[in-house]
Amino acid sequence: MAPTEKPAATTRAGSQIGRSVPRTEGRDKVTGRAEYVHNMRLPGMLVAKIFRSTVAHGLIKSIDTSAAKNVPGVLHVVTIDDIRMLIPNPYYGPAFHDQPILADKKVRFVGEPVAAVIASDPHIAEQAVQLISAEYEELPAVFDEVEAMTSKVFVHDELAPAATFADLKHLKGVKNTNLALSFKLRRGDFERAYAEAAHKFEHEFRTQKVLHLPFEPHATIADYKNTGVTLYTASQGPSFVRTEIARLLGWPENRVRIKVPYLGSGYGAKLYIKLEALALALSMIARKPVKLALTMEEMFYQITKHPCTFRIKSGLDNNGKIVARKCEVFWNGGAYADIGPRVTQKAGVTASGPYNIDNVSIDSHALYTNVTPSGALRGFGVPQLVWAYESHTDMIARELKLDPVAFRRQNLMRDGNQHTTSQVLKDAAIEPVMDLVLDRMTWSRPLERGNGVVRRGRGFAIAIKTVTTPTTSVAIVSISADGSVTLYCSTIDMGQGSNTVLAQIVGEVLNVPAESVRIAQPDTDVTPYDMGTLGSRSTFHMGHAARRAAEEARDKIKQLARDVGEPEGSNVPVAELFKKRYGMQAGNIVASGTYKPDYVSPDPETGLSPNVTPFWMTSGAGAEVTVDTETGHVEITKLVNVIDCGTAINPKLVETQISGAALMHLGFTMFEKMHFDGGQVTNASLADYKIPGIRDLPGTMENLWVDNVQHNGPFGAKGVGEVATFCVSPAIANAIDDAVGVRLTELPLNPEAVYRALREKAGRPLDEA
Amino acid sequence: MNAQRTINFTLNGLAVTASVGPHHNLIELLQGHFGLTGAREACGQGLCGCCTVLVNGRAVSGCLYLASFVDGAEVTTIEGFDASNQLTPEQEAFIETGAFQCGYCTSGFIIMATQLLDRHPEPTDNQIKHYLTGNLCRCAAYPEIIEAVKLAGRKRKARDATPVRP
Questions:
Q1: Structural domain total, chain B
Q2: Are both B63 and B19 inside the same structural domain?
Q3: Does the beta-carbon distance from A31 to B78 stay under 8 Å?
Q4: CB contact, 8 Å: A695 with chain B?
Q5: Do B102 and A216 touch (CB under 8 A)?
Q6: B114 belongs to a structural domain
Q7: pLDDT over 70, % of chain A
Q8: Is the Cβ of A637 closer than 8 Å to some Cβ of chain B?
Q9: Across the interface, do A215 and B105 touch by the CB < 8 Å criterion?
Q10: pLDDT confidence tier of residue A10, bands split at 50, 70 and 90
């Protein structure tokens, strides 16, 4: 459906759902007055800068801080020994407590924080950092994820899973491994079916290391007092930060306050815990507020997307039915686990794609290596998988001379089918998504491919994803005595527009305009628990919590009306009810709502579960390209992105999420790549790491969604933030193959890669650079 | 890092004075002395446009521009655009077309869009892309930004066509 108003069957006249309400915070953003932590200053605030490791793997022999300490204006130079005096077990992380607040005896990647300087002025702190020196006994390092499986170089001496994830308990204390977690899924009998298959295909795909680069770099201000600590932090998950800071301090959560203003975006970079632990420790040492804010260069040493190697095998029968598929996925997690083990498991669940295959074997491995840690980046690993399985799908069709549409259609999962996990598919509009892509690509009409230097081609891809489950959201709705409505929740509006969508949901229930609903700034002293703003979960999970809170508030308003003797159904303004009840403009209605979907943990042996996700995300993309056969330059002349979001609560915001996600992924597909030399990032700046600019827009782009209703979603809606990232890479690679008959199996699809492949195909390969 | 120097300049129409070091850039001056955070540092290399500020009517990268250079100059930041509490056609158009997500780069885009429309009241797509090529948006709101510039052009035209009340 095109981005028109009021598309879904569940809406009614005058409702707040299906309306393109302008962003609630729009005026603050266009006038430069929106607040971000990176620009915040507190009275008496000190600043800190980080001294980082220059080796990828090594034992710390000594750290010389004496010269730095003597710089006028420097208050403290801090190493792990200073921190341990205050925080006895200074290790943090969401899945594993493996990351030291500052390097502890050992460094595990270039750029790892080793020491920190606290000063009154950032220039002084920076100058002092230059005067610190460290000596290391270098150790052999491991960088590649496949090598890490069998390497004798171990990034960690033993594994230290966090207690929060019960399914990691068995990994505690395991030694001599880089494997942080393996997820496996077994359905049917892959070995037998593959052995008996008429056609066999085996391919390997790789993705490169790229990063989020939100334009507001990571920033945290910690203000520690013995009675409590406040952190102002650019975080996508204040509730998680609170839990982790409380654990480090051995305090109850209510002494830890996390405040988050607007976020200069996140894309997954600002999840879980990042600078917060170090900022806390520095403020404890300085006994003053301390700000720690990264530069853009430093973000290359904070968190990245997972590079991935995916080995995929498929067996087909003589009718074109896929009868067996094996997926071996190796995730390059970097030096600290961050949320990598969860990416490995949650993405692993859908590694075999949106196809009905009776015999499936999936092994998904999270690996430690000596590079910047990897985490979640807009898709929780799924874009890496789709890149592989949809390229693979096209390669099979091409080799067997099957129509790529008919081949997919024959094997596609549809509602009522069992997903690979055994969960029965519901409200997953895979085929309608594919059909709309094909329609907008005018696929049924032949494409003029050209025969000169510049050739044309087209390709498409489709995908499926679960939502991170089970997770909890809590919301509070408050009705003030004048009848005005405030929603308190810890969902972070980082640009996706969650404040606006949640205001629409609350407004819908309470029958007030979304524009009149105030969304309180996330602050754990005030706003209740939320698992995090991640994985396209907020509209669904917080949407439900906000809906329930608003429904309870509505019931309480009715009760108030009864209490003051108003007849049922009277339309006396709420303010009048308060006045009647309390004799003046006074009082408050407070209501809350909680949402946590049902879930059945995958069987540890088979990975199967009848309920792994409360909803399925599906998307498709189609690309038309021209390829210059003399330069390898690829131009994307058309990009069609289609998703299924159930009801589009705010059509304009849905459209911008699709567009933004696809364009961001265009960068990951066509040019973005972190280059390494001996573990050292050699292009850690915007000057050397190109991201999409306004000139990189495809010739034409369409961003659409299919007409669908998610039966268990708030007003029929489901998540949207990541969905349009999934299919961009394989759609373009498939189009390149269609244009010039070369197949790229590694990202990015830059001119060099295309040209090398063209020369290879012509029997005149280029030398390695 | 001493050698502080007192500079006088006009900031969003008001005469101001500040003491700055030779190493301070314009962003540090605006944020540290005046609490103006609409121009903000992101890449720190003058490549992204998040720190765009007008100095004597010319757009500069505040992260590279030394603070002491604005001595005697006229400096305008995004906070000066709605001085009369009225949004400019560009600001209105950015809201109406949804031409931003996180908002971190928005100030720079609005300043450059304004300058573009001053020079080319009815810009083509290509002119818009050319003019805004020095501004980056990681949320990639580029299609909406192009739409916003065009809408702002139409708004300006309508505004200019409206007779001023006597």
A1: 2
A2: yes
A3: yes
A4: yes
A5: yes
A6: yes
A7: 98
A8: no
A9: yes
A10: very low
The answer for A 642-661 residues in CB contact with B (under 8 A) is 652-653, 656, 659-660
- Please report, in tens digits, the pLDDT of each residue of chain B (166 residues total): 568 999 999 999 999 999 999 999 999 999 999 999 999 999 999 999 999 999 999 999 999 999 999 999 999 999 999 988 999 999 999 999 999 999 999 999 999 999 999 999 999 999 999 999 999 999 999 999 999 999 999 999 999 887 766 5
Residue B146: inside a domain? yes
Residue predicted with more confidence, A4 or A271? A271
Nearest to A656 among B37, B101, B132 (CB): B101
Taking every pair of Cα atoms in chain B, the longest distance, rounded to a whole number of angstroms, is 56
CA angle A441, A442, A448 (to 5 degrees): 95
> Residue A633's pLDDT is what?
98
ipTM of the complex model = 0.97
Are A38 and B40 inside 8 Å of each other by CB?
yes
- Kindly tell me if the per-residue pLDDT of A658 is higher than 90: yes
Within a domain: B40: yes
Cα–Cα distance list, A272 to A311, A371, A531, A572, A643 (Å): 30, 19, 9, 46, 28
Lowest mean pLDDT of A339-353, A695-709, B150-164, name the range.
Answer: B150-164
Determine the CATH number of domain A471-595: 3.30.365.10
Q: What CATH number should be reported for the domain holding residue B11?
A: 3.10.20.30
Its domain, for residue B133, covers 89-161
The fraction of chain A above a pLDDT of 90, given in percent, is: 95
Q: What pLDDT, on a 0 to 100 scale, did the predictor assign at position A51?
A: 98
Same domain, B106 and B132: yes
Whether residue B98 sits in one domain with residue B51? no
Last residue of a domain, one of B80, B109, B133: B80
The CATH class that applies to domain A38-141+218-293 reads alpha beta
Q: Looking at beta carbons, which residues of chain A come within 8 Å of B78? A: 31-32
Beta-carbon separation of B101 and A694 below 8 A:
no
Report d(CA A663, CA A536) in Å as an integer.
17
* pLDDT score, position A84: 98
Q: Which residues 178-217 of chain A have a CB within 8 Å of chain B?
A: 213-217
* pLDDT tier at A348, thresholds 50, 70, 90: very high
- Cβ–Cβ gap B133/A32 under 8 Å: no
Tell me the domain boundaries of chain A.
38-141+218-293, 471-595
Best residue in A694, A700, A702, A722 to probe B by mutation, most B CBs within 10 Å?
Answer: A694
Edge-to-edge strands of the sheet including A74-78?
A74-78, A113-119, A46-52, A290-293, A219-225, A228-233, A256-259
Instruction: Please check whether residue A42 touches B, CB under 8 A.
Output: no
- CA atoms of A610 and A603, how far apart (whole Å): 10
pLDDT, residue A11, reads 42
Of the three residues B80, B115, B143, the one that is the final residue of a domain is: B80
Out of A22, A32, A686, the one facing B43 most closely (by C-beta) is A686
Q: For residues A230 and A225, give the distance between their C-alpha atoms in angstroms, rounded to a whole number.
A: 8
By CB atoms closer than 10 A (0-12, 13-18, 19+), residue B166 is exposed
In chain B, residues with a C-beta closer than 8 Å to the C-beta of A36 are 37, 40, 104
Residues B17 and B73 in one domain: yes
- What average pLDDT does range A604-630 have in this prediction? 97
Q: Smallest CA–CA separation between B166 and chain A, in Å?
A: 30
Q: b/e for A268-280, b at 16 or more Cβ within 10 A?
A: bbbbbbbbbbbbb
- Mark whether B100 and B58 lie in a shared domain: no
Least CB–CB distance from B81: residue in A31, A265, A653: A31
Predicted local distance difference test score (pLDDT) of residue A568: 80
Considering the domain architecture, whether residues B108 and B55 belong to the same structural domain is answered as no
Confirm whether B122 is domain-assigned: yes
Task: Point out the residue among A29, A35, A664 whose CB comes nearest to the CB of B106.
Answer: A29
10 Å CB burial of residue B48 (0-12, 13-18, 19+) is: buried
> Could you tell me the pLDDT band of residue A6, with boundaries at 50, 70 and 90?
very low
In this structure, the dihedral spanned by the alpha carbons of residues A717, A720, A723 and A728, taken in order and rounded to 10 degrees, is 120
Query: Are residues A691 and B37, on separate chains, in Cβ contact within 8 Å?
Result: no
Say which range, A72-76, A164-168, A663-667, has the weakest mean pLDDT: A164-168
Are B69 and B97 contained in the same domain? no
